[in-house]
Every structure is written in C-alpha cells, then in structure tokens.
Amino acid sequence: MHSIDRASYGTIIFPISVLILSVFFWEKPITFFISIVTLAIADPMAAIVGERSKEHFKPWKDRKSLQGSLAMFSSTFIIVLFGTDFMVRFFNASFYLPIHILLGLALFTSLCATLSEMLSYRGSDNFSIPVITFFSYEIFLINYTHGSLIDLLLWTGLSILIFTLSYRLKSVSLNGAIGGFLIGILIFGSGGWALISPLVFFFVSSSILSKTKDKKDSRRDLLQILANGAVPAFLALTYFFFSYELALFAYFGALAAATADTWATEIGYFSKKDPMLLIGFKRVKKGESGAISLIGTIGTIAGGLGIALISQTVHDSKLAIFFITAAGIMGSFVDSFFGQFIQAKYQCNISGEIVEEKYNLNEKTILLNGVEWIDNNFVNLANTLTGALVAGLFFFLYG
C-alpha cells in the first residue's frame, strides 16, 4: 500500500469506507463482501497492469491507462459473477438470480466501479470504489426485485448519450462527465424518473444558460459536479434505503438551491447595470462573488420555482411549491453571503484583476480577503446544503 511514488491517503481512507458500510449496512453481508473484495483485488490489478502500460491519460488527477481500466473492469466482473454465487450458497439464501440477471449485475457493477477508480486522487479510490460498488450492486438488485430494472438500464444508456454529447459540446470535462454519470445512476436508481427529472432540468438548463455567455471555458469539472450533486445524491440514497420522507423533501430543496444560484449567476450576467454586494449594496464588477442584481434575483426565484413545480410529481401540494422555492432562494442568498465574506479572493499581479483562483495568467495571485481553502465549489456545496436544511425544516414543521 505504501510502494507508490505519489502522496496518498489510502491507508486512512480505506478504514473509513469500511466503517461507514459496516455501521449502516451490516445486514447486507453479500454486498458488503463484494464491495470490499473489489477494492482488495480489482483495484490492485488495475494498478499493476496500468503501471506496465506505456500510454496513459488523465481523466482527473492521477494517470490512468486503458489497459488498467480494462483490468479493473474484468476483475470486478469476475468477483461479482462468482462472488455472488458463492456468497448466496454460503448464506444459504432462499433465492438465486437467473444467469442473465447475474451477468447484467456483473456488467453494471463493473462499469460503475471502474469509472469510480478512474476518478481517484491520492488514494480516494479506497473510499469511492467500495462505496460505488456497494450502491451500484444494491441499486441493480433492488430495481430488479421491484420490477423497474428496464427503466434503470434505459436511463443508463440515455445517461451515457447525454454525457458523451455534453463532453463533445464542451459543457463538461471528462472527469465531470464521469462524475455526473455516477451521480445520475445513484439518483435514478434511488427514485426513478421522478427523482432524476429535476436533476436533468438543472443540468440541461444550466448548460444552455452558460453557453449564452462569452466565456473561455464553461465546462463543469468533477468538483463542480460534486459541489452541486453530492448533497442531492446523499439524500436520494437516504430516502431509498431508509424511506425517510424528510430526506426526499430535502432532496428537492437542495436541487432548488443549486438551480436558483446557477440561474442567478447566468441570467444576472445580462444585467445592464453592475451588480451590488448583498451586504452594503456597493456596486462591483459582474462576476464578483457575493454580488446580486435585479434580473439575477428574478433568475433565483425562477430557478427555485422550476424545481418546485417538477417536485409535484412526488409532492402534490401547493404548499410544497412555496417551501421548495423558498429553500432554493435561501440557499442562493447564503451562497452570496459566503461569496462576499468567506470565499477567497485574489489579485492578479499581471492584470491587477480580482479573481477567484490561486493562479492567473500562469502566475501566482495574492490573497486579498476570505479564507484561502474556501473556493466557489465549497460555497456551492454550502448552498445545496442550506437548501436541503431549509426544506427539511419546513417539512418537519409543516409536513
């Protein structure tokens, strides 16, 4: 585990992933076994084969190879195929999977596990591989037993097409496309078309709006995808496994906040006047974090309302529309507050511009204010978390 030429926190991350799965899913021993063995065997196989390859690519941070990914996929496929049969016999289970379903389970789980391994960074795959393997395995089986497997497979194919097209249109980077695909699988597997519809609405509308602006690179990367999608995915899985209605309501609140904030930024760009800071109402240049405009605020309300209306497929209530819209607006304003006072802002030594990155024009910038490690992705995460908490609070008080 230590014979690597790069910094890695894998030895710390591995027991955390095992602990989480043990605490919450100890009653699912077959899936637990499959996910841990996949990490223990398939991941090292990918590393061994990948190191011998001469051609590498970077889906995100670490170098990967096609041969290593194929080794990961093949090893996981064998583990799922034979491990499932072995464990079912070991526990003397009362049912056995038909061979075509078992093959489908192995293919589906192998695909998700391999994609999660491709996004590893400094040993993060010691968390992502067992967790993604566990959930993809469970999602496939539960959708099979509930009679919704065809829908899951249909979405899988449709999702591949969506993110392939988005990557070609430069709406997302390669790592963003992979991350978005996995988040979509987790959410669709947890609630089908009713839960994936607002996520598709957010992604498609945000991509279209971002393309209307003259930006050098509007592609969303993995961190941006996670900042907006990690909280909704967590809430969808919580509802799926534990049937908490509050988690379902909070899910829509999180997406309402993500959509409201994104629409506020993209639509606010077309304001003829410079925006004002949320606190103090001082006029600043367009694009500066923490600033709002009239047209951007209208975008905030419209984005939150859009998700709230879509949520009616699950919550047929006029009151739910108001609560989810309000949660989206609150999340967006918290985003602006954090952007003004906490998010790091830097000054470029060359152009003198105020930017949000540590490097600009290939030169290191100077920290002006805010906390150095709090960037726009952290603020977006706080935005979705706020939307979820506000919606959850409304549900708790009035649901």
Key features?
399 residues; mainly alpha; 12 helices; three-stranded antiparallel sheet; globular; two-stranded antiparallel ribbon
Which percent range describes the beta-strand content? Answer: under 5%
Number of strands: 7
Would you tell me the overall average pLDDT? 92
Q: Could you spell the SSE succession in H and E letters?
A: HHHHHHHHHEEHHEEEEEH
Biggest sheet, open or closed, and with what strands and sense? 3 strands, antiparallel
**How is the largest sheet built, in terms of strand order?**
4-3-7
What's the alpha carbon Rg, rounded to whole Å?
22 Å
Low-confidence stretches: none
Outline type: globular
Q: Span between N and C termini?
A: 49 Å
Structural class by helix and strand composition:
mainly alpha
Helix fraction by DSSP (H/I, runs of at least 4): 55-70%
Counting H and I runs of at least 4 residues, what is the number of helices?
Answer: 12
Can you describe what's shown?
The protein is mainly α and 399 residues long. It has a domain at 1-146. Helix content is 68%, strand content 4%. It is built from twelve helices and seven strands. It has helices spanning 10-25, 29-52, 66-90, 99-118, 125-145, 149-168, 174-211, 222-242, 245-268, 294-310, 318-341, 376-398, and strands at 276-277, 291-292, 345-347, 354-355, 359-360, 363-364, 366-369. The strands form three sheets. It has a three-stranded antiparallel β-sheet with strand order 4-3-7, with no helix packed on it. Helix 2 packs antiparallel against helix 3 and helix 10 packs across helix 11.
